[in-house]
Amino acid sequence: MPDRLCLQGILYVLHQDIAWQLLPLELGFGSGQRCWRRLDRWQKAGVFKGLHRLLLANKAP
């Protein structure tokens, strides 16, 4: 599953405030379990900390 689709699935779950297992497969983001595992791996790798720093550094005045 491409990273972009997993990220879209993660954002969908967070935005809709639903359980991971309720992520609809027909949306094409993969299973909720797959998206959760990718999120967990990215968190452990520091991806979101780096993204947060990048966004703060590029914040408009």
UniProtKB/TrEMBL annotation:
It holds the Pfam family DUF4096. InterPro entries: IS402-like_dom. Residues 2-52 form the Insertion element IS402-like domain. This is Insertion element IS402-like domain-containing protein. It comes from Streptomyces violaceolatus.
